[in-house]
Fold this protein.
Amino acid sequence: MTAKVVAQIEEQVLELRSQGVVPDGFEDELEACFEQAAEAALNSGSVPLKDLGGNVNPSVGGALGLGGLARQATVLLRRRLGPSLRRVERRSVIGAARAAETTWLQVHVAVDHLERVAARSVPASRVLSVLRPRELAGAAAEATHVAIEGALLTWVLDRLSATAGVPGPVLHAESGDGSIVEALVARGLDVRGADPRLSVRAGGATSTVAAGALEYLGAAPSGTLSGLLLTGVVDRLRPGAARALAQLAARSLAPGGVVVLVGARPEVVVAIDPVAADLSPGRPIHPVTWCHLLAHFGLSELTIFEMDASEPDIFAVSARCPSPEREDTDRSSP
Amino acid sequence: MRARPVRIDQVIPSIVERDAVSHHTLEAQRVLHSMGFVSEVYARNMGPGLQGRVHLLEELPREGPEHQWVCYQASIGSPAAEAFASHPGLKLLDYHNISPAELVERWLPHLGEEVRLGRKQLAEMAPIVELAFADSEFNRLELEEVGYRQSTVAPLMVDTTNFNCLPDERLVERFAKERAGGGHDWLFVGQMLPHKAHQDVIKAFACARKLFDPKARLHLVGRASCPAYADALHRFATALGLSRAVHFAGSVSAAELAAYYTSADVLVCCSDHEGFCAPLLEAMHHKLPIVAYGATAVPETVLDAGIVLASKSPVLVAAAVQRVLSDPGLRAQLIEAGLERARAFSIEAARRGFATAIERVLQAS
């Protein structure tokens, strides 16, 4: 059917040409016009306005850098001077801001990757040590290896085990050597582990995947976890990331699910190394602040675990995602 | 019958969200999981949003063929191919085509180098790959040409999540207002890369405005992945006096894309090179008639669900578009055939195709 139509169209084109409806050389002129535009674009080295205004390609933004984008914006401003100057300025500023945001994101993604590669690659470790001074990285790593044992371990396991009937597995992020994953499995729970550090994952639970807490939770579907244990990452979040972590935690829990955070007390981190605490990528957060954030994103039954004298440096917080049944019950109470 | 491995992992040079090959790879992972295999995706580079779902290539386990198979997603030259080639496991390759260097190197010299390397690596891997998949017969024939002994067509698992997205109402209203002033809406969807030949769509559009439809509008949707090329297209449209008629939409949301598909009158594709061309399928789903230049895998993807031309002379393309716009019977036939064709590429069918290909390797002696 379409072959016949195509033949008819081709015939029509021949007629148009023979009747002179299509001016002689019109298509050649179009080609020549594009060639001129192509040469001009290739020689100018500029990017089109649209790129700066609304659709910065991450790779382009990253490759040009902010200096390059500023130069391009200047070129464009010069080109578009006149009545539309104000509009162009606004678009360029918005574009530069978006490019800066993109670059910021790329830097953090790159650092995340380096952190993961650094565990087994000497060159990557060197690059990382330039990006993050060694002593700060060391202090952060030290702080993230809080030991969960004794009464705290029992409390954590009890909280996460109290999710009977809630669908979905329990996730431990960042799970290190998988010992807590195994302890939870021993209690009959379906447990997953996630940790970005290859070195500590080796020999750990088979269900451990290579991912940081933010990465894993960012990709996880909503409402699919019955429990979530957050360790390590809690102590070394970048500015603004604590809020994101609380939000992702709340989002990932199924109704009735429980989240438990375990971290080092900020005052302890400050006392050990005030310089590292002040200059580290993220400020250590107090347990009461975690409670505030988790409540802000809709979690309830907030509990702070008070350590005994033997473990004064560590805190733990738990919260539960409200289930409709529980809410109904509450409402029906006198 | 071959021993069933514990895991079938995939290696991909780069993976990003909202990319056809990346989506195919993640779908393939789901299929492999459903078949009972442990399966992870390992990438040399990954975009934001995929951390946690995808692993760094350095973390790829290296086990023998009785435990592990590895499938390489080939669409560009990359050191990831070397990691794949040196892997001890049984090797599979999924080929999505590699654009010829001559189509891109004028604009993106580094991309020219990468695609040249990609074709070289593709040929070098032929002797070590047990079975190669191709998402079109066109791609499969290319594999045969470079020496792949066993190859089969396993359709691209296209991202259909956009298909049923509600159109952006604000944009639909804007189109309706513009349409009230007369003229039809042409659409092309694809990254602004030179082998997509946006300039040829603009040429045909200029012809159509001159000969048939002086108030027509052209919408070019897609990320400006090559800044110089995008700049040239802006300059070209301006030089032709079409800066108000040609709308460079850039990268759009799913709702906005749906608005473009539902509001346009025709999809015009003049690409010089396509290994499959997913936007054609999207157009079919949205009941949008297609006029396309019959290059590479395009005729195979469209079949009789669109007007496929042997030449992309601007006047010919313009006349074909005019015919589709002015012949309601033809338009209805194309839409019906498009819906039928889109069903043939359903995600369920594509998943079955991939699973069947894997079973074929398992059953080989």
User: Anything to note?
Assistant: Residues 156 and 260 of chain A are 7 Å apart (CA to CA). The beta strands of chain A are 170-173, 191-194, 208-209, 225-230, 253-264, 300-305, 314-320. Chain A has 16 helices and seven strands.
